[in-house]
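During the second year of the project, the team shifted from modelling isolated chains to modelling whole assemblies. The rationale, set out in the original proposal, was that interfaces cannot be judged from single-chain predictions alone. As a representative example for this report, we include one of the complexes processed in the last quarter. Its constituent sequences, exactly as entered into the pipeline, are reproduced here:
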Amino acid sequence: MTRKGQTTRLVHADRFINQPNSGAVHSPTSNSVLFEFTDVQDLVDVFQGKQMGHVYSRSSSPSTAALQNMVCDLEGGVGAVTFSTGMAAISALFLSLVRQGDHLIVSRYLFGNTRSFFENLSNFGVEISWVDVTDVRSVEQAVRQDTRAVFAETIANPVTQVADLSAIGRLCASKKLLFIIDTTMTPGVLFDAQKVNASLTVASLTKYYAGHGNVLGGVIVDTGCYDWTHFPHIAEMYKGADEKQWGLTQIRKKGLRDLGGTLSPHAAHQIAVGMETMSIRLQRSCDNALRLATYLHGHPNVKQVFYPGLADHPQHFLARETFGGMYGGIFSIDLDENVDCFAFLNALKLVINATHLGDTRTLALPVAHTIYFENGPEERAAMGISDNLIRFSVGIEDIDDIVADFEQAFHIIGA
Ligand SMILES: *Cc1c(COP(=O)(O)O)cnc(C)c1O
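Output from the structure prediction step:
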């Protein structure tokens, strides 16, 4: 049988993959923290990794396992581990794999909280080189003997730089480096992480996966592309027969079990339901974003639009190649200096002033005053973030209504 289309597979994922009993189309939400074993030898075998099973729900449960199976199928990997938030996944990933004295190459264009996490990690003796991931040469120049990993996002926000993932992937393969990509902006529906030789992907499930602004979650997927025998920090006890599982085993133990950022069973169910419609939501958000960005591009009150879907974006062709002809649902605009940014935002009625992205609703955020407030004016200037920069996460509303909202807002402020 030919492999079914992406939307079909997502809608039926729980049935096809997890096959819940009694004709249920959803995996049951299992609330038990503990799991009984009638033969204690089985309990011991699960503890010792000789047998699959659940012993305590901080480490795993039937509910998180069901979601992990679905994410893994979509992303096409050898395994997935879920977490309570995207940040829990990112922090657990690095805290379980790197050590004092290691060197990491990290994108200069990063989600603010991730950047803050890496800054803190450097206080623990991990050295970070911040590089321009749109240019593989800057990554190459940063590689050292003690480099353990390269980390980048697919499309960065707010200014939408697109990393040259294929070239970085080739570089990492030749140097046997772990290549970790945050795919939050471009889930598996848009982006094939194996094609660019990613080793691990990490994503916030809060965003496009869940999609409705009502639940938090995160995930790490192992693509199967990396040979873990080259990684020096896998503990002997986690080196099982299947080398492909070494990395995730250590992440499950040192990252999830010991740090405790576990996804709750109810949240896992909500994310699984959201995921069923992800491909059509994402397609619609991308279409709407392109339409809205095109409308704003050249608008007299807009100085610049940052969207990879526009032909004047520096990585337009790279984005088209990498994300199957789609360009994501996020873009930013720089309003003219003589336009009052806050007055404009307050005049929007349909569009919601809120931080968050990947939602069904269109959201707007003044970047400098909020998510980049902690960076201070000098760093913001260096990052190209002006006081009039607004980030939009475009939802799935009817595009004419979104554009009409912008038109009336420009009208109200007399622009
Ligand atoms: C939101 C986000 C995160 C963090 O996810 P949470 O679920 O909010 O913890 C990480 N990376 C990117 C790119 C994000 O947009």
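The radius of gyration is 22 Å. The longest helix spans residues 278-296.
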